[in-house]
Design brief:
The structure holds two protein chains of two kinds. Helices cover 73% and strands 3% of the residues of chain A. By secondary structure, chain A is mainly α. Chain A has one domain: Arp2/3 complex 21 kDa subunit ARPC3 (Orthogonal Bundle), CATH 1.10.1760. In chain A, α1 crosses α5, α3 runs antiparallel to α4 and α3 crosses α6. The radius of gyration of chain A is 18 Å and the shape is globular. The two termini of chain A are 26 Å apart. Chain B is mainly α. In chain B, α1 packs antiparallel against α4. The two termini of chain B are 15 Å apart. Classes of the chains: A mainly alpha, B mainly alpha. The interface between A and B is large, with 77 and 65 residues.
């Protein structure tokens, strides 16, 4: 889901950076109020977790690969604004040092994976918890569903950003200048990948880690509750 | 704070097993290199020619020049989590300066 440079027009890249800026500024303000000395190390750990979990490529039928992202987990544990900061940093390091996702397209990648995904997942989780909070197992299941929803929202946005390129940006004779695939190719391809393997991986990571923390490290969950509601 | 150490050990163990992610062959959809376009479309879109090398990442594809794929991948993971941790920690410290733990 890391869009490389050259797939999106500079105009699209500028719009996506523009879309990120208010979220980054607001996230900074929110965290200034809520972050304390107990939460800072936890945010850095779970941001690092998001970075490393993205290295586990999983094959998808049809010859491509996918991976979990972890930003819904960060949002469920530390709140969506913390996830915006933590996962944006992870995606930036991937682009700068490892060429995973572009620099021009960093705004798009950050918006998809570090902003839209954690918010979509976080509110799905809260909604499901409001309906049926139940046992810790039930909450972990809710988190798993939230992870599944979150990664698919990110995948759909990525598909729309890629798919709009040939329509808007082509040469006089119609040759595409950037991503040559339109919506009819990008949306089914991205959703197939993430409604199957990617979504399941994200669900397992989100629900599994939450379950593990609730079972084995309840005191960490208590620390995290400091910043539970957004 | 002992718990935090356990979590870091978990992350470090994850780094050691990251090469499992190398077993999956092929690229993620929409993350192909230039040769894909030559093969499939017979041309490389102009924007890709112009911008795909806008930035030269030093450890492209999580590989370290001169090291094997597996070792390079593990060390990239360690370097990456180190960078993420330090930057998030510094950002967090800056943002939360003046706050004491409130719980």
């Amino acid at each position: 889901m890391h869009v490389p440079d050259g797939y999106l027009s500079p105009q699209t890249c500028a719009v996506m950076y523009g879309a990120c800026i208010p979220f980054w500024v607001l996230a900074g303000k929110r965290l200034k109020k809520r972050l304390n000395s107990k939460l800072v190390p936890l945010l850095s750990i779970f941001s690092a977790f998001s970075f490393v979990i993205m290295m586990f490529n999983i094959p998808v039928p049809g010859g491509t690969t996918t991976h979990a992202i972890g930003s819904v987990l960060v949002a469920v544990l530390l709140g969506p604004w913390a996830a915006v900061i933590g996962v944006s940093v992870a995606v930036l390091i991937q682009a700068l040092f490892f060429g995973d996702g572009g620099i021009l397209s960093f705004g798009a990648n950050a918006f998809n994976m570090a902003i839209a995904m954690p918010f979509a997942g976080y509110y799905t989780y809260r909604f499901l918890n409001a309906i049926n909070q139940g046992s810790p197992g039930r909450q972990a299941l809710n988190a798993a569903v939230a992870g599944y929803v979150g990664i698919n929202v990110a995948a759909l946005l990525t598909a729309l950003e890629l798919g709009i390129q040939p329509m808007l940006f082509h040469s006089a004779n119609g040759t595409p200048l950037y991503c040559p695939y339109g919506f009819f190719q990008t949306v089914p391809a991205m959703l197939f990948t993430h409604m199957t393997i990617g979504g399941i991986a994200e669900a397992l990571v989100t629900g599994g880690v939450l379950m593990f923390l609730k079972r084995s490290m309840p005191e960490i969950m208590v620390d995290l509750k400091v910043e539970a509601p957004a | 704070m002992k718990r935090i150490k356990i979590l870091w050990v978990c992350i470090f163990i994850l780094c050691l097993v990251t090469p499992l992610g190398l077993l999956a062959s092929g690229e993620a959809w929409g993350e192909w290199g230039r040769d894909f376009f030559v093969k499939v479309f017979g041309f490389i879109p102009e924007g890709l020619v112009r911008y795909s090398n806008a930035w030269n990442a030093p450890l492209r594809d999580y590989s370290i020049p001169g090291l094997g794929g597996v070792l390079g991948y593990i060390l990239s993971a360690v370097a990456g989590i180190g960078l993420v941790m330090v930057i998030v920690w510094l950002l967090g410290k800056t943002l939360s300066s003046g706050h004491r733990s409130s719980s």
